[in-house]
Amino acid sequence: MAYTIQQIATALGGRAEGDVGLKVLRASEPAGADAQALALAMDQKYADGLAQGAAEAAILWEGADWRALGLKAAIFVPRPRYAMSGLTQLMDPGPEIAPGHHPTAVIDPSAEIGAGAAIGPFVVIGARAKIGARVRIAAHASVAEDARVGDDALLMQGVRIGARVVIGDRFIAQPGAVVGADGFSFVTPEKSAVENVRDTLGDSGETAEQSWTRIHSLGSVSIGDDVELGANTTIDRGTIRNTSIGSGSKLDNLVHVGHNVQIGDDCLLCGQVGIAGSTRIGNRVVLAGQCGVNDNIFIGDDVIAGGGTKIFTNAPKGRVLLGYPAMKMDTHVEVYKGLRRLPRLMAQVAALQKAVSNRDQND
């Protein structure tokens, strides 16, 4: 689809200069842009790339001279990175899912399908499920019995929505995401070695041979509006009460949310984050890649944890964390500096020991 420079500028809340009727088909990095592409040169460091490419229009940094850069038109936006969200939304055609119900889809007669829904090949929708208006479901996805999916949702290929899961509007799940699998809950007839270690912080105690017995998950999962799940992300159902994800939260690929976990609004969980059961997470929490969160703890609003952080205890509101175990980021930086100095310190200590020893021998 072709877009005029003025259409794009209006959509981004920016201003257009030059030939505002010029049309482009796609966005491109400056060096690889041709005449039909809009070059994304939102910082002065991309100026050389514009000279290498053949773009006639670009989104530029404020104050750039588009004529001197050899362009016919330019767009200026107040916040370039935020403008990327609007531009990509405008130009993204989305997955091709034909309107209506594909003949291979299996839809239980008791299921309710909203107006304008598009259901792809080999989709399975269970008994009494409710699918909202304009929902799009790609091939091989499934929605189990009594589940509810709100309006304008998008379920990509192979997504699994479990029984009794409740999902709000504008939900997006990337391929392979699973919502509502059983929680990982097992118990032994007598106190296990794991419980002893937990109580004593190190002593497994005397335990006889034991087998693990499943604790079934009677709860489900509740998800608010505008939530997005990455590919192969998994959210376990609760044991008694529901696991819950607040509105506006975004979970990256391979994130795991354990049973009974409560996640607040507008949280950002990056790739390979793991949250153990019954933990509560506040609003606007950001967990960078490979963060791990212990079970049965609380993380307050606006906490930010850097990549690889392991959180074992409660984290107060607004804390910035890093490290294993988690500590204040500035403290962790000082500790790491100290760790790097250890070899030099040990060499100095060894030299002092040798000097003292030699003096004692000479006395």
Q: Span between N and C termini?
A: 92 Å
Sheet of most strands? 12 strands, mixed
Note poorly predicted spans: none
Q: Helix coverage percent of residues?
A: 10-25%
Rg measurement, Å: 28 Å
Going by helix content, strand content and strand pairing, the class is: alpha/beta
What does the overall shape look like?
Answer: flat
**Biggest sheet: strand arrangement:** 8-11-14-17-20-25-28-31-34-37-39-40
List keywords for this structure.
ten-stranded parallel β-sheet; 26% strand; alpha/beta; 363 residues; 5 helices; twelve-stranded mixed β-sheet; flat
Characterise this structure:
With 363 residues, the protein is an alpha/beta fold. Helix content is 19%, strand content 26%. The radius of gyration is 28 Å and the shape is flat. The N and C termini lie far apart (92 Å).
